[in-house]
Amino acid sequence: xxxxxxxxxxxxxxxxxxxxxxRDLCLQESLRGSTVSFVDIDPERLExxxxxxxxxxxxxxxxxxxxxxxxxxxxxxxxxxxxxxxARSHDDEEAERALGEQRGYYRxxxxxxxxxxxxxxxxxxxxERICPDAWLIQSGNPxxxxxxxxxxxxxxxxxxxxxxxxxxxxxxQVLGLDPDRIRCLAPGINHGIYATHLEYEGEDLYPRLDxxxxxxxxxxxxxxxxxxxxxxxxxxxxELYRLLGLMPIGDTVRITGWQFHLDxxxxxxxxxxxxxxxxxxxxxxxxxxxxxxVDRIFTVAADPSARLTEEFPxxxxxxxxxxxxxxxxxxxxxxxxxxxxxxxxxxxxxDDVVVEVPAVVSGWGIQPIQVGRLPARIVLYTLMPRILEMxxxxxxxxxxxxxxxxxxxxxDHRTRTLEQAEETLEALMALPFNRSMAERLRG
Amino acid sequence: xxxxxxxxxxxxxxxxxxxxxxRDLCLQESLRGSTVSFVDIDPERLExxxxxxxxxxxxxxxxxxxxxxxxxxxxxxxxxxxxxxxARSHDDEEAERALGEQRGYYRxxxxxxxxxxxxxxxxxxxxERICPDAWLIQSGNPxxxxxxxxxxxxxxxxxxxxxxxxxxxxxxQVLGLDPDRIRCLAPGINHGIYATHLEYEGEDLYPRLDxxxxxxxxxxxxxxxxxxxxxxxxxxxxELYRLLGLMPIGDTVRITGWQFHLDxxxxxxxxxxxxxxxxxxxxxxxxxxxxxxVDRIFTVAADPSARLTEEFPxxxxxxxxxxxxxxxxxxxxxxxxxxxxxxxxxxxxxDDVVVEVPAVVSGWGIQPIQVGRLPARIVLYTLMPRILEMxxxxxxxxxxxxxxxxxxxxxDHRTRTLEQAEETLEALMALPFNRSMAERLRG
Lengths: 443, 443
What we know:
The structure is a homodimer.
Chain A: E1 6-10, H1 15-27, E2 35-39, H2 43-60, E3 65-69, H3 72-76, E4 81-84, H4 90-101, H5 113-130, E5 135-138, H6 143-153, E6 157-160, H7 168-174, E7 182-185, E8 188-189, E9 192-195, E10 197-200, E11 203-204, H8 206-215, H9 217-223, H10 235-244, E12 247-249, H11 252-255, H12 264-271, H13 280-302, H14 308-311, H15 321-330, E13 334-341, E14 346-347, E15 354-362, E16 365-368, E17 372-373, H16 376-399, H17 402-410, H18 418-429, H19 435-440
């Protein structure tokens, strides 16, 4: 093992993601000489990313080869690593949300998991056929549902990645501590992870956190105007901690607990003046900033006189993607938070469900670290219900049973009547971009 | 084996239950010479049942011995069969309901499962100590949660019984068929069972049912004034069939699907003019009729000149209790619907959960019949969520964690805010008869 590899990037048109990947690759000396093959269905974005990558590497004098193709199969030829970051567009999701809101669901429904699973399985089948020994690295959502599906349906080497677990750093910041000196173990399932261990230089941080909650949190929430994505220390996070007994980490705070999400007023109460990342306000801001960042990347990339490494300085991102590839390819042994089939890593959860746990990653592969049992409240209140939702999704996906999908709406706490759920599902199915899904799901 | 046995009846003051038991025992020739030891905490009821039993047997000239005691341990001495029918009083449950209704929950909450589990475990521990080889027959509710708990915590021979599966007979009646010639296989978990097979003289009844739904059901619902307990052919039952693909049987129709139970109007829509068995109207009628039946039993029992076998003719009930004891004691091989640990009887459900399946009962014991896998809709929409609820209850019971109990309310579809759930739980805990539960559950 070691040295140069071939990496295929599916959905490379995600400009922010790909720019981060390019930066990290250029900074990873052990991967010099590698080839990166970008794939996207959007030729304009693909062209832009490809040119950007070449120029960035050239400015740094780094030996990396970049290819581009609309032909996924070509990109997979000889690949040892396949990164799948593709997902349905935000525009489609917004159309679904709007339609749900008209029917009494604040922030609506997204059925994007269905086409995203379809895409994931298509990629996985191609990998099986063309480069079956490659690592398939899934970063497009839903990581939990998708990785569970793919690891059940194939015998590929699959790992799901997410950066949500870095949320613990924000806890340190707010407590006035250096985030780099905090150590956190936060296992669970993707977007449902909880700090079983939270330490500052070996000192348990929970007592400090409790003290902060008792004496400073109200002041913090009153005076602090949180950014739309500062959910980690929101009232909702502390409430979940109070209910479940461990601190929820990262995106967990965004999606756990129906009681925080019923309407904008409720969201404002729990996530601050903007209603959090996923309120109508917060999400619009996110999309606007994302568009601005993409625009900026496009603008810079279109300017042949721009110095890319000045515009986007060559500092590593916090993403584990490239370090993990380096660890696998070149035996750079390290510990990373990964999403892999449970098989005992978390005691008491089913074996064939993908969990998020730390793992030792090296030339020997990905070796999950057993973290024991999680508290019953967390297992029975949040993880098992989410596992059941995933099972319903996979069953709908497998069987094409539309009634299975109806349950997704029926069991939502916002639903008031069966008719509301049925009517909304039919309306979602009638959206033009959902046609192929509607055809796969019998009436 | 064979011949006379000793049967202890815990909660014998349940007059309707005990009268049925007495009738069936008197009619079961193979159990002549047996001893029945009645136990109850209510001396008046106990005295009445004891006298009633003796007179009833005497009138029939049947050799059965009846004892009574307030001392459970004494009753268990030498018992081969222990029937536990004890449960919290309806009065306490009504007080809990009223309190929930004041807080926006139609029909409120009953936490009676908690004291009932406490009682079941106390009986099970006594059986373990005093008559460990006895069969413990659980008929008090919650059968599902209680039998799962007891079979996990002890190594006793435990079986849960319920008559809900006879609901299939009502399907036959409404279709104009002789119920005695219908065969139905309805496995699941107690109060969540579904007809995988429904036949009339070997003919699949589902097509007939579909025809009835298409051409006659609306007329039936319009013209038929259903009795409060005629839920089996209600709109709710047919809607569940439409959603889940198999006909729900018996009590399943009463408790499945939040969408039928939000308020009285909703219940009337789905269960007919009285709102079904569990509406305020239906339940009040049930309690009234129950009180009338108990009164009548008391009145007759208090009249030394009454001929009991004329007032309560000696015809067998539909309960399987006595036939099962006869089958076990005297090798009267038969097939019965029982609640026992799964261990593969229903494929795809956890092994250590009590399921309701048919079993061959004989001198060899209770041998559950493997019924295969249930449809995914039923498993993922109704059985697994109920299993999760049971796991939360058992965990609350085991750990004394009040937050676990809060989840019972929080996850209820009627709950609109966390405060509502918390306030209601605290109010329930403050009820005088819940004091010992409140003490066991930490704040």
